[in-house]
Amino acid sequence: MKQIMRRLTYANVMSSIAIFLVLGGATAVAATHLGKNSVGASQLKKNSVTSAKLKNSSVTAAKIKNGAITGSKVNLSTLGTVPSATNANHATSADTATNATNAVNAKIAETATNFSRYFATGLKKASVGQSIPLLSVGPFTFTGVCEAVGGTEYTAYVVATTDAAGSFFSSSDSEYRTGDFEPSDEAYPQAYTPESTEAEWLGEYGFSYYNEFAAASPGGNVLLHGQADSGVHVFGADCAFEIHGTNNA
Q1: d(C-alpha 240, C-alpha 226), whole Å
Q2: Which residue from 17, 61, 144, 173 has the fewest beta carbons nearer than 10 Å?
Q3: pLDDT in tens, 107-163
Q4: What is the residue-wise DSSP string for 38-52?
């Protein structure tokens, strides 16, 4: 120990201190100044990189792993309508339009069906001595007869017949209510018919109750309810006829 103390000089002490400072300073510099690419994943402490440490816009799409961002992580309200969704909206609109069109077509078909139940002859004219066909519905046929009573006194009336045995016909003049209206029979829809030398029209206004009739086929597929009108010396003709009504089957 005395030998060490005798050899320990001021210069030796100062040189030892200088070496210590140099080595300690280099270590500190090395700790605070890292070389390029010297820090890897293994040098990072777990949870040491927080969002506050990330520079804005520093993470690009290329840095994100495929499938890393799922739907639960996306704010859906920030997304626009993607093309497939637009097509889906168009499909929904198309379905709505198709349904609306179908509804309109169904209504038109219903209206057409209801209208097809209606029948009308329009005005039919005849000369004295003529019998003219007016209407045929199912087994029933209606004929207009224009006859001279004497001189210029004419009468005009309607005759109904059937080609189906067991038919029904009812009016104020004819009663076949028990299925006994046969092809050999003639029925008269009108209780009153015009008979005059002057213009006379027994139409809807005044005689509708007495000119109404009902007819039914044996199977019930034809159920007529209508009115027969006629006149003489009217509308520029010796006789005129009109029938209208509905098939309620």
Answers
A1: 17
A2: 61
A3: 555 544 565 899 999 999 999 999 999 999 999 999 999 999 999 999 999 999 999
A4: ---GGGSPTT-S-GG
